[in-house]
Amino acid sequence: MSTKRARSCCLVGAGCLALLACRMDDPCAPKTTACGGDPSGIWAVEDACRDPAFQNPEAITYKDQAQTMARQPPPEPTSSDWCSYLMYDPTLGITKFIFPSDTLAVSPGGTITYDGSGTYAAKFQVVGRGSVDLSASCLSRFAVAFQCAEADPATLPAGARSLTNDLKAYSISLGSPAQNIVCADDGNLGCACTYELASEPTGGGLSGRWSTQGPLLTHFADTLAIPTQADLCVGTDTMSIAGHDRTWIWAYPGLRTVTLVRKPPDMSN
Fold first, then answer.
1. Phi/psi at 20 (nearest 5 deg)?
2. Are 120 and 244 contained in the same domain?
3. Which residues, including other chains, have CB under 8 Å from residue 41's CB and lie 6 or more apart?
4. Count of domains forming the chain
5. CB neighbour list of residue 69: distance below 8 Å, 6 or more residues apart
6. What's the pLDDT tens digit per position in 105-116?
7. In the chain, what are the helix, strand and coil shares in percent, each to the nearest 5?
8. Predicted structure pTM score
C-alpha cells in the first residue's frame, strides 16, 4: 500500500471514529421497527419514554439570593437558588414554593382509545420523585423558627413551625401535586426534603382525529393546527408508537415512545 493511500485510509478511519464518539445516545430510541397496522381499540399504557431533555433548564438568576460581603464565599451551598422560589411567613406558613424535579415520567395504566371512526383520546398521569435542600440561610432569612421533621403542632415549641407540615399544607392548597413529603436535617442547619410528584390525569387536549398511511400514524389534535406523526407497529395484543423523526406523540411535551397493551372490552371503563 502506498504512503499516500495509507494516509487516506487513516484519515477516513479517524473520521469514522470521531463520528461515533460524537454520536449522542438517545434515551427514547424506538425498541421496534415501524410495521403499520390498525390502531383501533382501547389500549393501556404499559411503558413510555419521555425525553428528559425535552426543554432547556430554567435560567438561574441572582434575584432574591442572599447578600454576602465582598470577597466572602456564600454561607453554604444550596440546590434552591437561595430561596428565590420560597416565601415563608412565620404566622401563615409557606405561601409560595416550587417543588423542583427532573422530568416526570408517564405512569403505566393510562388509557388510549382509537375509535374505528377515526377519533382518538389519550388520558394518563405523569409521576416522579423530587428533592431539594433548603439551606439554613434560606430558611432563617424569613425569621421563622423551624424544625425540619414532621411534628404535632401541640408539641412544637412556641412560635416554631414544622417545615414538613408546612410543605404538606402548601401542597394540599395546590391540589396535592407533591405527596409523601419528608424533610430532615441536612447536617448544616438546613433541611433536605424529598417527595413524590403526580400530575392530574392528562386528558381533554389529547384528543382529535387520526389516520394512517402505511406505518405512519398521523394525529390531528383538537387544539393544534399542525398535525403530528408517529411510527406505528400493531401486534395481536400490543402496539408500539414512536414519534416520527424524534417528535412528540399526541403533541405531549417530551413524550417520544409508548408501548400499549390491548384492553378487553369489559375493562374499557
1. -65, -40
2. yes
3. 113, 114, 262, 263
4. 2
5. none
6. 999 999 999 999
7. 20, 35, 45
8. 0.72
Cα 12 to Cα 24: distance, rounded to the nearest angstrom:
20
Count how many residues are written for the chain.
269
87 & 216 share domain: no
Question: What would the grid cell of residue 27 be?
Answer: 434515551
Asked if 164 and 183 touch (Cβ cutoff 8 Å), the reply is yes
Query: Can you give the residue range of the structural domain that contains 211?
Result: 41-53+115-125+205-267
Sorted by sequence, the CB contacts under 8 Å of residue 49 that are 6+ apart come out as 27, 28, 255, 256, 257, 258
DSSP state letters, 201-221? PB-SSSEEEEEEETTEEEEEE
156's CB contacts (< 8 A; 6+ apart) are 147, 162
> CA 239 to CA 190: how far, in whole Å?
48
The span from the CA of 256 to the CA of 54, in Å, is 10
Burial of 206 (0-12, 13-18, 19+ CB in 10 A): buried
**Last residue of one domain, picked from the residues 169, 198, 227:** 198
- Give the model confidence (pLDDT) of 192-232 as tens digits: 999 999 887 776 668 999 999 999 999 999 887 689 999 99
